[in-house]
Design brief:
Layout (H helix, E strand, L loop, with lengths): L3 H15 L4 H13 L1 H32 L3 H21 L17 H13 L2 H10 L11 H25 L1 H10 L1 H24 L4
Helix pairs in contact: 1-7, 2-3, 2-5, 2-7, 3-5, 3-6, 3-7, 4-6, 4-9
């Protein structure tokens, strides 16, 4: 099992990553702006189901991989660090996107909103890479079942993502109006995210497997 210290650090990492621009956030916020909070929450429910599918696939795959090929941990660790550096660059690069640059979407019934949220997340490479590259940094085979630890991390990640996106959906119109009047704050937010992601990448790259 994982320690409270590890879970706290992992929760912070999940918070930083869920606040970086991505298809899930943009889709849910866009739905909330176009069709109201109810549509945004239904879309978010589909997104969360997509997280469950990603989690099960990654947990079972990582368990098998780390048991069969122990040195795969180092390869995954370096891939994870490279991926976080790429996310950091996306946040600070000139012309980088912001989370609340929402798209205009046509009105759809709840069933379609849910299914589109599910598919949007299922096909989101950011989520797949997060599970496959970031989870192994917190897995310790010597402390028990890798599968149990993966599911524990997944529950934390889904909880953090669900809570943050729910707040964003509920406050989408107000937050968007604020950001549209505060380009300086939006630029600062991007650089803070980029710095934190870069620091996480360096920490992972320089860490040793216990």
């Amino acid at each position: 099992m994982l320690t409270w210290h590890e879970l706290a650090f992992f929760s912070l990492a999940c918070l930083i990553l869920v606040l970086t621009p991505g298809p899930n956030m943009i889709y849910c916020v866009s739905r909330a702006l176009c069709q109201g909070r109810g549509a945004g929450l239904v879309s978010l429910a589909g997104v969360l189901l997509g997280f469950v599918v990603h989690l099960m696939a990654a947990s079972l795959g990582l368990t098998a991989l780390l048991m069969a090929v122990p040195f795969a941990f180092d390869a995954i660790r370096l891939m994870g660090a490279a991926y976080l550096l790429w996310l950091a660059w996306q946040a600070v690069r000139p012309g980088g996107t912001a989370p609340f640059q929402a798209r205009m979407l046509p009105a759809d019934p709840p069933r379609k909103l849910f299914s589109m949220g599910f598919v949007t997340n299922l096909l989101n490479p950011k989520v797949a890479m997060f599970y496959l590259s970031f989870f192994p940094q917190f897995l310790h085979p010597e402390n028990g079942s890798v599968l149990t630890q993966s599911l524990q991390l997944g529950a934390v990640q889904i909880g953090v993502s669900g809570a943050v996106n729910c707040l964003l959906v509920l406050g989408a119109s107000g937050i968007t109006a604020f950001l549209s009047r505060s380009e300086r704050w939006l630029r600062a937010q991007r650089y803070v995210m980029g710095t934190v992601l870069g620091a996480l990448a360096l920490r992972i790259a320089m860490s040793d497997r216990k």
